[in-house]
Amino acid sequence: MDELISKLKKLVSVSDKIVAFTGAGFSADSGISTFRGAGGLWSKYDPSIYADINYFIQDPSYYWNFFKDERYPTIKKAQPNDGHYALVELEKRGKIYRIITQNIDGLHQLAGSSDVIELHGNTRKIFCMSCNKNYSMNETYNILKRELPPRCSCGGILKPGTVLFGEPLPQAALDMANITAKNCDMFLVLGSSLVVYPAASLPAIAKKNDAVLVIVNIDPTPLDNIADIVINENVSKVLSKLISH
After folding, report:
1. DSSP-assigned beta bridge partners for residue 98
2. What pLDDT was estimated at residue 2?
3. Within its chain, how far is the Cα of 137 from the centroid?
4. Cβ–Cβ < 8 Å for 52, 130
5. pLDDT one-digit tens code per residue, 118-146
6. Which domains, and CATH codes, for the chain?
7. Cα dist. 219→39, 44, 191, 193, 230 in Å?
8. In the predicted model, what is the mean pLDDT of residues 196-203?
């Protein structure tokens, strides 16, 4: 692995428009479970019930039970890990152009990253489906103690600011992500399995536009064959070595 990191350091040294593309594996060291694979959240909760917009509209209590018992305690406790802070350090060094994330935990912003595109929304942001009033996680959790599903002061149902199955990605975020992928000089995939589209198409767009493609993920991905460097290792560990002198 040290040889690959040395090669990565050399490529980073000549890059100044690096895009970091982060997935669920990036936040694993912060105690946030991945969704897919062994031990992932979807092995315990059926996503067609707990994370589907049509089911949510039909009966939002399933999602809000999941939020109360699983998501709120996890996100409330989670803190940025070494990987998050390594990206902040790379930004300070003028290397990071932008972060594109599939994660919904808000930890990049908490760590101090300044330019983050959230493709799948943010679970810390909650809004009323009737009047669009915004609520924090804490406010929503307190309402949940009194009623399920939680309701706005206007009587409307509250919805998480995340993209549920059956919903399109926010167009503005997707457009910005596509522009970012086309204009970077290095596309750094960090902790993503690259199986969820259209997000997983971004590395190929970057590569097509002459960016160096680097994939750091514990498991192989479908795009390993077009990458310039593939490192099958813990993301935080790799980034910590990358920023060390």
Report:
1. 19
2. 84
3. 18
4. no
5. 999 999 999 999 999 999 999 999 999 99
6. 1-32+80-120+169-245 (3.40.50.1220), 33-77+126-162 (3.30.1600.10)
7. 15, 21, 9, 7, 10
8. 90
What is the DSSP pairing of strand 96-101 with strand 116-118?
Answer: parallel
Confidence of residue 46 (pLDDT cuts 50, 70, 90): confident
d(CA 150, CA 204): 41
The model carries a pTM of: 0.91
Taking the CB of residue 202, how many other CB atoms lie within 10 A of it? 27
Question: Whose CA is closest to 93, among 213, 209, 243?
Answer: 243
CB 82 within 8 A of CB 28: no
Q: Which H or E run contains 11? A: helix 2-13
**Model confidence over 51-104: pLDDT tens digits?**
899 999 999 999 999 899 888 999 999 999 999 999 999 999 999 999 999 999
What's the rounded Cα separation, in Å, for the pair 70 and 242? Answer: 33
213: its two tokens: 């493609």
**1: its two tokens:** 């692995």
177 within 8 A of 197, measured Cβ to Cβ: no
Q: Determine if residue 37 is left, alpha or beta; phi over 0 gives left, psi from -120 to 50 gives alpha, anything else beta.
A: left
Query: Tokens standing for 170?
Result: 């926010």
Which residues are known catalytic residues? 120
